[in-house]
Write a structure and sequence with these properties.
mainly alpha; 10 helices
Length: 243
């Protein structure tokens, strides 16, 4: 619901005015933080995944005990849920620590891909994902087209993707599996551009508060991290070679 602000109230509100050049500089510096946090989290996730995959004891403990795996999955859901809602309320240390903890737990659960796919296909799919992410994120950052109208369409696509995946747990339909895979790729490719453009606006949250700026950067990194990981897993279905 939109709020109406009377003219006399608008006149009493402080207005921040900056030049286009300063705005571009602020956004650029902010997005560098976002990409830095995201890259660090991806590196941590990948390192943990490879470490766990190299240990037969760890693999057996995690994947031969359904309670352990479900517990890790629940921790993932809770961490990302709390981080999404509380990132700007916590201290910088707590926000960044929770994000890194989420990256570690994700690495543990994602270690299963090393059991299902060859190392070469995982590596090549990662580079395909990185290239796709780079192109779409640059598009989202530099385009003058308003991508906000994509929001409802992408949300419906995500909901449909989740429902299709849940239904296919029972149907085991190969056709539905591949339809969901290709639709998912399209949705997350578009989300990368959409989220990047949206995150540019977060750059102005911390103009007078460095802590807020850093927390907003971590929150932005989480959003793009999730886009990257989901796109990677979907592309792995297409390009991955099973063992």
């Amino acid at each position: 619901m939109e709020e109406f602000v009377p003219d006399e109230q608008q006149n009493t509100q402080p207005t921040l005015r900056i030049s286009a050049e300063d705005a571009a500089r602020i956004q650029g510096a902010f997005m560098q933080q976002v990409y830095g946090w995201m890259a660090g989290a991806l590196a941590l996730t990948g390192g943990v995944a490879m470490l766990v995959a190299s240990s037969e004891v760890a693999l057996e403990f995690i994947f031969n005990h359904i309670g352990v795996f479900l517990g890790l999955f629940l921790v993932e859901v809770l961490l990302v849920s709390f981080l999404s809602r509380k990132a700007l309320e916590w201290s910088v240390g707590v926000t960044s620590s929770v994000f890194m903890a989420y990256a570690v737990v994700s690495g543990v659960t994602l270690s299963v891909i090393f059991l299902a796919y060859t190392m070469g296909s995982i590596a090549s799919t990662f580079f395909i994902t990185a290239g796709t992410f780079g192109v779409m994120s640059l598009y989202g950052y530099f385009t003058r087209t308003d991508l906000s109208r994509w929001g409802n369409i992408l949300m419906m696509g995500l909901i449909g993707l989740i429902l299709a995946s849940v239904v296919n747990l029972f149907l085991h339909s190969e056709v539905l599996y591949w339809v969901a895979t290709f639709v998912g790729v399209i949705v997350f490719v578009a989300l990368i551009a959409y989220d990047t453009q949206k995150l540019k606006m977060l750059a102005f949250m911390g103009l007078e508060d460095e802590a807020t700026d850093r927390k907003a950067a971590v929150l932005g990194a989480l959003i793009l991290y999730l886009d990257f990981i989901n796109l990677f897993l979907l592309l792995l279905r297409i390009f991955g070679r099973r063992r």
